[in-house]
Specification:
Maltoporin, Chain A, 651 residues, single chain, 33 strands, disordered N terminus, mainly beta
Amino acid sequence: MKQFRYIVFILCQLLWSFYGVTAMADAGQAEDTKLEDITVVASPIIEGNQTDRYAGQKTTVTEAQMQDLNAQDISTALRRSPGVNISRYNMVGSFGGGTGGAVFIRGMGSSRPGAEIKTLVDGIPMYMSVWNHPLLDLMSIDAANSVEVYKSPQPYLFGNAFGVVNITPKRMTENGFVTRAETAFGSYGTVIGKAEQGGKTDRLDYYIGGGYRTSDGHRDNADGELKNIYGRLGYQLSDQWDVSYFTLCNDNYADDPGAKGAAESLRQGRYETRSRLNVVTIQNHYDASDGYIKLYHNEGEGDWLDQPTSTAGVREDLFNDFLFYGVKARERFMPWSGGEIIVGIDWDVTDGDYDISYSDGTKDAWDGHEFIIISPYMAASQQFGTKDGFYITPSAGVRYYNNSDFDAEWSPHTGILLGYKETELHLGYSRAVVYPGLDVVLMSEKMIPMLKETWKDLTVETADHYEIGVSRHFGSKAVADVTLFYDDGKNRYVVVPPPPPPPIYDNIETYRIKGVETTLNLFPTTDLSLFFGVTYLDTDPADLPYAPEITFSSGANWRFLKAVQLSLDCQYLDEMFVDSQARRKNAENTLTVDSYFLVNGKMSYFVDVTSLKTQIEVYLAGENLTDADYEYYPGYPMPGVTGMIGIRLSL
């Protein structure tokens, strides 16, 4: 009955969305032409869901949305996005060990070690290679023009992942200069400061900046600190070619406050993260083709310090080093009207190692291992008709994987778009491939030596993804979309314990996720924008972590009295299982957290100083305005009402 009620609720939401906006669009049809492309306030929560010509979808959160949400890191930027859930312990900083900081997309991403979700910056890997899972503090949003969330496998864009969170860096695209600075102070000793400066003159462009955040935290030992600097330098070699260099450096830490009421000795210590990303990109832009070549190198550390061990009184410092480097090349051809062909190849090297120091003076080390994946891919699509009327766009493609340690694999995909003017239907199938990470080698060589070399017999994890959705634009007044999805996961690798001995690695676990997601963006006036989003999930097994049956989020941006903007958002999450999805045969998840409903807001006052060509924004932001009791992990309560006051200068 509960499931039936949820389905009825979602259907009512969809019917209201389409019926309501249709009536509004009809009533205001005469105004649509006049108001086209005039938007005073940004869409709240997300910029929207975009469907490309290969029937793949992405959700985009822009810098404007992150500012309206008063987001200070990647998890607060994404946690209201439909289908995305997070876990965290602290107000500032995401503890990288255990379940302290993670992002989950439609039930995917809860495996530790190992992960189906990959985090990227400028399309380049940014996560902990040794344990093969994200470290969210490395994903600095200060450098972000936008954050892209790919909730399904899209082999023509990325490989070796079921889903992706990607940060697109800031850059100057028009001649001129911009300077911004911001400082803010909030509850529990929270301090924020950031600055950036960009410019473009003819062929040369640049963008540099940095940020600093610190907080004492809402509990003892819940403090954290985030520091980053970034920069981009670009030069246009000719009308068709340009070259750029991008760098991002991080230095962060977050402490584990421990479960409420637990002994101090059980605290998991501190997690420090650092990274140094360097990317050189050569791009071309022709009338009938465009593309790029990226050369990248990304190294860093994820150090888990002062964590307890199984020996009473002995603490452990674990120093993990990660390294990624490689080349990504891609070219898109438009050889005839309506046609498009994509060809590309990725050469990715993943490396890592660790050192351990114990408080009793003993030491240990793992020399690491190196995986190399070469993955060429190709896709083609053809649009028949035009978007002024009826059109149809079929597509198909495939990615091939050659792995240095495992068998080769294929990722096919196919899709079709059917549209008439502002209404579009998309149908798609894609096969995701995820190779085992360095964690399987590490576990075999250090943690469970009895596994011996059974990791070499593993195959890839796969997920067959099916999706159908419809979207509708109602002039400039509204955008609504509904997506139904089904994921069939196979060959999840786990440790099979005795009997009979010894333990072995094997690909035996399966799972299924199906659901529906709907979003609605409304623009009743040029001063008001609204957002509503609902996601329903049905999983098998039913204890899949961080996969609540229903989530709901909404938001509003309202500009009034010319200089005042109010931004409100709320989020409801159903009760759900939590904790990492253990890589062990027949492992069950028993930990749960209750449902919760959060309300957050931000009030901004804008002053234009014409003589200085400067805009000043003074704002007051609050989170959990209803003082709800909630937690992402049992024993780790999150703060009640918190506030922040800040000022932002733009010139």
